[in-house]
Amino acid sequence: MNILWFVPILSVMMFVHEFGHFITARMSGITVLEFGFGLPPRLWGFKRNGVIYSINWIPFGAFVKMLGEEDPSAPGSFASKPRGIRAIVLSAGSAMNFLLAVVAFSMVYIVGVPGVAPDSAVTVAEVAPDSPAQQAGLQPGDVIVGFDGQPVNVQSFRDATTAHLDQPIQIDVQRGEQTQTATLTPRSNPPDGQGAIGIVISGGLIRLSPLVALQQGLNQTVHVIGVTLSVPKMLLEGTIAPSDARLVGLVGMAQATSETVSYVADTGFWYPLFVLTGLFSAGLSIANMLPIPALDGGRLFFVILEWIRGRRIPPEREAAYHFVGIVVLLTIMVIISFNDLLSPMPAINWGGPTPTP
Fold first, then answer.
1. Which pairing describes strands 199-201 and 122-127: parallel, antiparallel, or unpaired?
2. What is the tens place of the pLDDT at every residue in 170-192?
3. What is the phi/psi pair of residue 115, to 5°?
4. Do 32 and 51 form a contact (C-beta atoms < 8 A)?
5. What burial class does residue 91 get, using C-beta atoms within 10 Å of its C-beta: 0-12 exposed, 13-18 middle, 19+ buried?
6. Which of 51, 85, 86, 205 is the most buried (most CB within 10 A)?
7. What whole-number distance in Å separates Cα of residue 127 and Cα of residue 147?
8. Bridge partner list, 223
9. For the segment 80-116, what is each residue's pLDDT rounded down to a tens digit?
10. How far apart are CA 99 and CA 278, in angstroms?
């Protein structure tokens, strides 16, 4: 059932996308006939200021129906507006997806991500077998409060441990209401998956203030888009393998969502759901602006051609171009989704506790 969570996530992305078209069209004086959530047939709706606002039976996506999208002769139609207005309306959907990605990535830092704050107490979560920590008698729940007689937090303890590899050290350990001293020697070459003394520090949720989180959300969105646009270059340079740059369709996105919801349910951490929403929305903001027929980017391409040529391409020719594009695009989507079924994407590793030095 977790796979059904993909429906509301995609619907929110599409609703936000279409709302961008709707609000800019209304502000530009374009006649909007209907703004609907879900796909027809209509379940319920009402009319206000000439616009039908509807909720439809198929709970998937959203749509905006504007007057004369390819008929410049109709007063108040989309096609009758100047090139600049049409370009803004066409770009508004992707702009809103960009903003949604910023909000989603910001929420990651507001709800919190599991980690260990540098200034937090050194609380032992796990002790590796046959490690210096186990030989010194450390147990889960112990709090290391001192290093060679000096008080420590996570960062200072890590720094001090790294500076004393293969040297005996004394640590002060608080267990319950008692404090005791233990001697151990941090290893310079610990086994794989272990740190120098063989403990895992207990962490919590690291949160940021809303303004700082918003800045981080913006940075993350720009980073994701930059990496996505750099994929062709990285493929040519051999930086990444072709298998790492495969296209993912609706099936693959649904599978990733199902795995993420399972992780959220098992751990109680909500941040992966916001990360996934941010990735999807940032990806949609890019993909929709590609000069592909039937997409906003394809329609914007015709606006640019009109600006270069100085005259409009016949509406019937543009309509035929987009119709063929829809058929090709749907075929590609079916192929990609079929590939997702035959070769599922690797499970997402959302991380976990890491050993400390």
1. antiparallel
2. 999 999 889 999 999 999 999 88
3. 180, 180
4. yes
5. buried
6. 86
7. 18
8. none
9. 999 999 999 999 999 999 999 999 999 999 998 887 7
10. 9
Residue 242's φ and ψ, nearest 5 degrees, are: -55, -35
What's the residue count for the chain?
357
CA distance 357 to 221: 32
Got the DSSP string for 8-21? HHHHHHHHHHHHHH
The pairs formed by 170-178 with CB atoms below 8 angstroms and a separation of 24 or more are 171/136, 171/144, 171/146, 171/147, 172/144, 172/145, 172/146, 172/147, 173/138, 173/142, 173/143, 173/144, 173/145, 174/142, 174/143, 174/144, 174/145, 175/139, 175/141, 175/142, 175/143
Nearest C-alpha neighbor of 329 from the set 284, 285, 293: 293
This prediction has a pTM of 0.81
Closest alpha carbon to 356 in 54, 92, 22, 128 = 128
Fold of 122-202: Pdz3 Domain (2.30.42)
